[in-house]
């Protein structure tokens, strides 16, 4: 199963990039994982929020195929413990899913079309995190999930 974190806009904080790269190096031993970046819209400051969400949504949907499993990282999604998240990842792998996309939207969230295309929504917290920070949290939790699946000692109960 190929897992992709699809994000709008690049991470500009070099400290966050260093930490993300650390987990990317670790993850390559467990799964086929990548981060795919959709460039930020030009002139986004001159757009209404809905217009920006629609344009970003169109760019997101262009990256996806019909058979792809799409999971939005969204404040209204289901919350998981780390163990439950690892079980969800394992369940998707065992179901024969070829490609799973976890998607981080732009600053205003997702368009209606993206919500309609999604297979599920997950939330990392009731709190709101920056779009740059959630990338780091996601790669750490994916790494943690892989170690839980393999019974390795990274996660402690």
Outline the secondary-structure elements.
Layout: E1 2-8, H1 14-27, E2 32-38, H2 49-62, E3 69-79, H3 82-94, E4 99-104, H4 112-117, E5 120-123, H5 131-149
Helix pairs in contact: 1-5, 3-5
Main pleated-sheet profile: 5 strands, parallel
Number of domains: 1
Question: Could you estimate the helical fraction of the residues in percent?
Answer: 40-55%
Q: Average pLDDT value? A: 94
Envelope shape: globular
* CATH architecture label: 3-Layer(aba) Sandwich
With helices defined by DSSP (H or I, 4 residues minimum), what is the helix count? 5
User: What's the CATH class, please?
Assistant: Alpha Beta
Indicate the radius of gyration in whole angstroms.
15 Å
| Order of neighbouring strands in the sheet with most strands | 2-1-4-3-5
Number of strands: 5
- SSE ordering: EHEHEHEHEH
- Could you tell me the strand content as a percent range? 15-25%
Give the termini separation. Answer: 27 Å
Spell out the CATH superfamily: SPOUT methyltransferase, trefoil knot domain
The name of the CATH topology is: Alpha/beta knot
Low-confidence stretches at least 5 residues in length (pLDDT < 50)?
Answer: none
Derived structural class: alpha/beta
What does this entry look like structurally?
- It is a single chain.
- By secondary structure, the chain is an alpha/beta fold.
- It has one domain (2-149): Alpha/beta knot (3-Layer(aba) Sandwich).
- Helices cover 42% and strands 22% of the residues.
């Amino acid at each position: 199963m190929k897992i992709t974190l699809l994000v709008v806009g690049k991470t500009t904080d070099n400290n966050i990039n260093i930490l993300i790269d650390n987990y990317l190096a670790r993850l390559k031993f467990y799964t086929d994982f990548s981060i795919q970046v959709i460039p930020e819209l030009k002139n986004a400051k001159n757009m209404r929020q809905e217009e920006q969400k629609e344009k970003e949504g169109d760019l997101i949907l262009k990256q996806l195929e019909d058979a792809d499993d799409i999971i939005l990282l969204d404040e209204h999604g289901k919350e998981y413990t780390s163990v439950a998240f690892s079980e969800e990842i394992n369940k998707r792998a065992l179901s024969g899913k070829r490609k799973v996309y976890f998607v981080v939207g732009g600053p205003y969230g997702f368009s209606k079309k993206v919500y309609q295309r999604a297979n599920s929504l997950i939330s990392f917290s009731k709190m709101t995190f920056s779009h740059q920070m959630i990338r780091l949290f996601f790669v750490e939790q994916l790494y943690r999930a892989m170690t839980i699946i393999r019974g390795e000692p990274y996660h402690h109960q």
